[in-house]
Each structure stands twice: as C-alpha cells, then as structure tokens.
Amino acid sequence: MRRIGPPVVKLLDDDVESIKYSLASHLLYSVGKEPINATARDWFMAAAYAVRDRVTERWMPTLNRYYEQDQKRVYYMSMEFLIGRTLTNAMISLGIYDQVKEAIGQLGLDFDEVVGWEVEAALGNGGLGRLAACLLDSMAALNIAGFGYGIRYDYGMFTQHVEHGWQVESPENWLRYGNPWEFARPGVIYPVRFGGRVIHYKDVMGHTRAQWMDAEEVMAMAYDVPIPGHGGRTVNNLRLWSAKSTREFDLKYFNAGNYIEAVRDKNESETLSKVLYPSDMTERGKELRFKQEYFFVAASIQDILARFRKSHDNWDMLPERVAIQLNDTHPAMVVAELQRVLVDEHQLDWHRAWSLTRRCCAYTNHTLMSEALETWPVDLFGRILPRHLEIVYQINHEFLQEVRHRHPGDSELLRRVSVVAEGDERRIRMAHLAVVGSHKVNGVAAIHTGLMKSTIFSDFDHLSPGKITNKTNGVTPRRWLLGANPSLAKLITGAIGDNWVTHLHELKKLEPFAADKGFRAEFAAVKRANKEHLTDVIGQRLGIDLTADSLFDVQIKRIHEYKRQLLNLLHVISRYNRIRSNPMIDLVPRTIIIGGKAAPGYALAKLIIKLVNDVADVVNNDPLVGDKLKVVFVPNYNVSTAELVMPAAELSEQISTAGTEASGTGNMKMSMNGALTIGTWDGANVEICEEVGEENMFLFGLTAQEVARIRIDGYDPVPAINANECLKKAIELISSGYFSPDQPDRFQGIVDVLTHGDHYLLTADFPLYLAAQERVDQLYRDTDEWNRRAILNVARMGKFSSDRTVAEYAREIWNVKVE
Ligand SMILES: *Cc1c(COP(=O)(O)O)cnc(C)c1O
Fold it and tell me: What cofactors does this protein use (predicted)?
C-alpha cells in the first residue's frame, strides 16, 4: 500500500515548541511585527508561513523524485480552481493539525479567529472549479505526478452582498494582503502571441511551412502553489499564469517621450489575467475570454514541452510521459496549439504530430445543454489566432475525409460532426475540436455519460466506440468530512479507525453502528451541535433567529433555472399557505436554507434571489408562523460557507430537471455529512441511490427520458397548474404581489416563465416533489429512524471519494500507475 517515506530533506521539527518558534520567528522576520503590536491577521500570516515551510520542504523533494524517476506527468488544465482556504487543510495533510492548534493556543491566541483571517482562493465559479481542486488533492494523496495549470486571476469570484434582498456584486481583491501560499517565479516566463498574419513558404527541403508573424506579445509569468497530499509524502504543484507586458516600457512610446502611453499599454496587456468570468456557463463571444483561454494554454504547452525536453529528445516518447486532461472545452485550444508547436516550431511531420497530440489529450465534458456548449465565431478566431484557425481547418479537413471514407455519401453526418458549424455566422465548435483531438472523452456521472453518447456526441460514439467513458465525480473526504466536520470525523474514527480518510470505502464498517441506539444518539448529538453552530453564525451575521429544533433543509449551489431553486420556493410557499389557513396545524418545523451566486448578467437568477429574500421577509415575520417555518438566504456562498453549512444539513435539495445536472458534487458532500437527499433522477443522485438505497433517500419526479419526450411535443404548464390547488395558489400569491407589496409586479418575469413554456418542468414535477416532502416530514417525526438512515448514507458514500475518481482516470485515461 502507500509508503510514507521520509522526505529527502527535513529541517524542521513538528512538535509544539518548534512550531511556536516558527510562528514567532515568522511574525518577526516575515511579517515584520512583534507580539505586542501583531493583529490576528498578522498571526494568520505567521501561521501560514510556519506551515508553508513544512509544506515546502516536502514539495521540492517530490518534484526531484518525479524528475529522477522520469515519471509520467498528468497535467490538469482548468480555467478554474476553486480551492478555498488552505491553512487547516495543509495542517491536516501534514499531520500537524493538533500541534499547530496547540502552539497558537499557547501563544494566547484564538485559533478559529486566526484561521478565519484567511481569504479563500476563489478562482472558480462552482462545481467545475471545485472538481479541479478535489482532483488535485486526490492526485497528491495518491502520489500521482499531477500538475494543475490555470490562471492567477487578480480578481477571482466576486463577493456577493445582499442589499434590500437583491444580489450586489463586489470585486474580491484577494491578493491585497499578499498570498502566503504562492511563489512568484519571475524566471519562468513565456511569450504568448495574438493577432498578426501567416505566411506560407517552401523550406530548403521543399516542404511547405507556415510562419506566424507580426503578432502582439504578452508574457505569461508563473506563480506556483504547493498542493500537499494527505500524509505529506507528495506535494504537487499548481502553476498559475499571470499576464505581464513584454517590456516595462515600450521603447517606441518611450523614445517619443510618451511615458504615459507606454504605461497604459502595459496595463492593457496585463488585463488578460485580471478577472475570472463569473458565469458558470459559457461567456458568449467575449474576445477577452477567448484570449484568456489561449493565454493559459500557450504558456502551459511551452512549459510542458520544456520540461519534457529536459530529459527527452525523442518526440515519440511524448504520450508516454505527458497526459493532458482538459477540464471542459475552455482549454480545448491545447489541441491546435500542441499541433502547431510540433509542426511549425519543431518541424514534425503533420501526421506524426497529430498522432502525438491525440495520444496526449483527453477531454472531460461538463454539460449537455446546447446553450452552454462553447463555440467561437470564425472571424474572431481568425483575427486573434490566424495560424490556429488554419490548423483547425486542416484538422477538420482530415477528420471529415476519414468520416467520408467510412460513410460515403452521408453529407448530413459530415455536417453534424464537423468542427465548423455552418450557418449565418460560421463558428468553431470547441467540443468537437476537443473530441477529435483526444484519445478519451469522459462524462462525470453514469447518466450524464449515457446521455452524452445518445445525444450530443452520438455520432462520435458510433465513429469511435469506446472513446467516450464515464468517470463519476467525487469529492475529497479530507476537506469535506475530516476538515469541515471534525466532530463527525471523530465519531467515525472512534468507531472504525481512521483508515477511511484515504480509503473511503471503509466507511462501510459503519453500517452495523446504524443499528446501535447509543451510536445513533451520539450521531444525533454531533448533528445537533453542528446545527447550533450554524444557528449561532447566522444569528450573528444576519440577525435571523433560528432554532436547531427544526429540520435544516438546505439548497446551496449556483442559482440557475435548471437547478430549480424556484421549485424549492414553491414548496416553501405552499407550506406557508398551509400554516396560514390552519395556524394550529401540527407540522414538522423547517428551516429552509438557500445560498448561491447568480451570474451578474443573469437577470432571472437575480430575481430568484430577490424572491427568496422577499419570501423570507414575509414568512419570518409572520406571527402566525412562528418557528414552524423559517427561510434564510445565506449570502456569498463559497467554499468556506459550504464547509460551515454542509455539516449542519439534514435534508439535501438536489432537484434539477432530470438530464440537466451533469453530476453535482454538493449532493455528495451533504450525504457524506449525514444529510438525506431529496432529489431527482439526475446526475450523481442516481449513483448515490444505487449506493445508499432508494429507501434511504427521497427521489421523485420525471426521468430524463420522460423529460425529453414531454419536450418533443412542447409542454404546456397551464393544465398542470390548474390541476393542483397548492401549486396554483403558490403561483397566485407570487403574482398578486403578496411578497412585494411595494412593487406588486416585481416577480412577473418568474410567473411568466412558470406559466408559459416552463422549460425546466417545475410545474410537471411539483406534485411529486410535494409528495416527497410529505415523506420527509413523516420520517423526520421518527427521529431515531431518520438518524439510522442518515448514518447509512454516511456509511455508503465510499464510492464518492475523489480518490476513486482519480484512480479511474489514472488507469483508464492517463495510463499512470496508482500505488
Ligand atoms: C461543491 C460546491 C459547488 C458545486 O455544488 P453543486 O450542488 O454540485 O452545484 C459549488 N460551489 C461550491 C463553493 C462548492 O463547494
């Protein structure tokens, strides 16, 4: 099994005294303060440096080991890494959590306050970026030579405030006080070119060659972030690129005496890594976004090839030493860039280069929704990357030749699979480029992969059977159970030992404890304490009084029509109506917790947030309701908020329209923390059900097949609304302005969507959702039985460790060994 060998160099001791010494010396030498004038943030920085030292002395030997053993490297290319805070996570990975906590305590400081000063790295929107972070954690835990490549955004995900119930965004200047986890590498810097033109000429051998000229140049400078694996044997590298202008001062301007112009130019080239696009679906047609994508692709490919060339001069070794995983199509330009570099810069024969490119690349798809599939207009593409457009055309030409050869006369097939979409405006389909340029394509849950094969990629599946495979997502149990929920982790370890931390299947051993009344009581006490903690924080931060005596019903995720926060609200409003019409009704008290960010340009999602808050205002202040129903919108949902809320969740809302949520990972985190799921037959819910048993969940609603069939005929929500009195009343209440007396028609846009077309079929699923909620209430009255099932959920979540996910990628896509 995994050997935890000593690092090559170990200078620092990990006992409390040594750590105290590190803290004090970093406070003085790195922060420049003394205890007498140090703030809690200064102490956070000192603690981060003290822990970082211990990470770093394991990091360098890891990189040397890969080099000496000439290991195959896995490059995980992602525009997003939603990492969250690092300090406690690193302490846990290195096994020094207790010592550091004790050292901080002995210095007279409050540990939680010190740790609380860390600004999280929010370089991602949601699930996709968080997956990248979980996979990095697992690659390091499994001692795989996994490197992340991404962008060091000056501004990551925006901070969400709620003002008068509306979402207000503000930029998060997360680097303001310095980032203790990054190392600037001014020596690792590559040029990235944009624009210009291509000339073709014959070289001395008579081969036609292309030269890309007159391009503008921006520099990509590396910042390295260590990723410590659990146990500390392996510390991997996440390399993030930051844009720098080619020169401090453009001599052209400088010589003309125009100093200000020169500095302005510098700023413009540096905008490339300025800000993360805050939509979790594709940004359409934004030139800056296109440039960001190529910027990090071009820098990463130069870096990957430079590393390869240090120990190899035979290009044919490339696929044996390099695996490149494309997280969605955002880095799909890798396919064209790698081909370009091999052909234009290293003079490889086209077909040899193409074989190498395809054997290196693999692509992960994250969505089936056509509006989210990335395409770029040919004119924009060609203006910014003229040579790449030629290469994409050539790739497409050869691919279509092959298809034509195998399926003569099927011009419809050619049109469907082409990398170039013909139409009023020709566009490049990045998903097709990624598929054609990869040796494996994967979906992120079984149902999603199945739908991929039967819908968007069905032609590709027929052309290359076996190329499309499934890799069901997972989450790292280090952050999402051990770190976020220490009391549950302690209870589990007390029962079955701590091997589950790296072998999550061992949670199975917990199953017999579900039948143990004493254990159920301890489990209930842990959940209760987590709920009380959340109640306290919400009370302090939002001034809302909650009671831990109610069922905590949680839906936290990006706000999106397909995720159906509105369906949740329709249940809330019908519950409210029931209470109003019968104030003495004996209902299970519920606390509905909703959190999530809306893309700043997504008006309907923002209106949904406003509706949550307006409903909360009415419900929470209605004396008839009391503790029977409370509604809370938790602002600024991010990794730290998730770590706070997940452990307190009792009911996990995973209610997307079947066929729309590729996998979901929030569903896994909550179930792992002992929540029961109310959900649809969508994404990983289906596999969670296979593991934990349908009797331990509340699944309801249309299947993906039924959804598809209903949509073919065109769905009319009106009959469904008229047939269900609760639904009708709930919609009428919104429509009447009851929740928005100051502006009665405020939610007309929402009412319109529900009553005209209802694309996400909320009204079709509503009756079954309500029935499922009824089953939730009934079970919750039997506290002991509820807890038994919650324990079984935890015990059966072994499959959903990202360690399992990574091991599958390693074996079936990357072809690297897992110890
Ligand atoms: C896990 C996670 C997500 C993904 O949640 P889903 O419910 O799968 O959409 C998004 N944001 C954050 C901060 C997360 O931790």
Answer: pyridoxal 5'-phosphate
